[in-house]
Amino acid sequence: MNMHFNFHNPTNLIFGSGKLNELGKQKMPGKKALLLISSGNSVKKYGTLARVEEQLAQAGVMYTVCANIHENPSKEVVMEAAAAAKENRCDFILALGGGAVLDSAVAVAAMATNPGDLWDYVNGGTGKAQPLVNPALPIVTVATSSGTGSEINCWGVISNHETNEKIGFGDPSIVPVLAIVDPELMKTVPVRYTAYQGFDALFHNTEVMISSGINILSETIALSAIESIYKYLPRAVKDGNDLEAREHVAYGSTIAGITMQLTSTTAQHSMEHAMSAYHHNLPHGAGLIMISKAFAEFFIEKHACDGQFIKMARVMGIPDADKPEDFITALVDLQKECGVDDLKMSDYGFKPEESMTLAVNARETMGGLFLANPCEMSNEECAGIFDKSYR
Predict the structure, then answer these.
(1) Rounded distance, CA 229 to CA 327, Å?
(2) What is the pLDDT of residue 269?
(3) Hey, how many other C-beta atoms are within 10 angstroms of the C-beta on 143?
(4) 231 CB burial (10 A radius; 0-12, 13-18, 19+)
């Protein structure tokens, strides 16, 4: 086991049911916030936006609402939000929402203070990989779903529709200064998205577990998160008002935000980003589910990290697991229990002949994650995983 790790996270994480009520008592990083929300209606419909506005008033903070973030957020909406922050002279970002909003906040915070276009600073693909000129605005996050873990780390994934690229953007200097994770806010997430987001959180942790960079700390907390998600995600899917289940899934998701700082995810995420770069209507978690079985089987067939798969299987309902294939059994059973075992790539417009295009895109845009795989994976092998997953 690797006993070396580097963990630095200056985020003040406040976790637990009812904790949104403590937002107004916290030290804020500025006097005027860009209150970043999605283009949907949920935070308004369920009163969450009004509650946050009340908390900001309690803290003596002014704000401007920007409601333009959509699923699989594009660089255009990031630039629009950054322009709104500049125009209204906001001195920090408050991101209220699910993964798309939390991911966007990192890029919005950077572009609110830096010249040019977001893609000037993106590493990978057609990004110009320039360093940031100026420090980003500080970020406060209030998570309303359990999936990305972006409430507590410095990364967000943004799409460039012109180039069919979906690439992670971030910088260690843009870690949120304050994060509120209140599972009560997650009770209204629809059934299907509860499952998709829960599996996204699960795969963050399972990919960390098989990563070449796994270490004693990331493994310990990743296994804890995997066990929580395995036990409680089916309950959250069955009954969204099951607060205990929501709490444990939220825990697994937020912990993933930490494990991903300690140890990288793998090419499974690169591959899904390629999928949704070409098919914008594909929810990220759904794409991950579609390729998850074939992706794990690739490494099992290579005997690349048998012990890691066995460790995961033992916290996923098979305590006496003794072979890596037991992980596949547990994974498939969990997908069936959550009602997502019927997902088909063809339902989202995929064609079998796209496999190599997706494989090449995955490596060109987020090739760094391929380096975290426990063994090498060629473009042909990557395309083969898409072929095997296609239905």
Answers:
(1) 14
(2) 97
(3) 30
(4) middle
pLDDT of amino acid 157: 93
Collect the ranges in the chain with pLDDT lower than 70. Answer: none
Q: Which residue has the tokens 């990978």?
A: 124
Residue 188 neighbours by CB distance under 10 Å? 17
Is this prediction's pTM over 0.90? yes
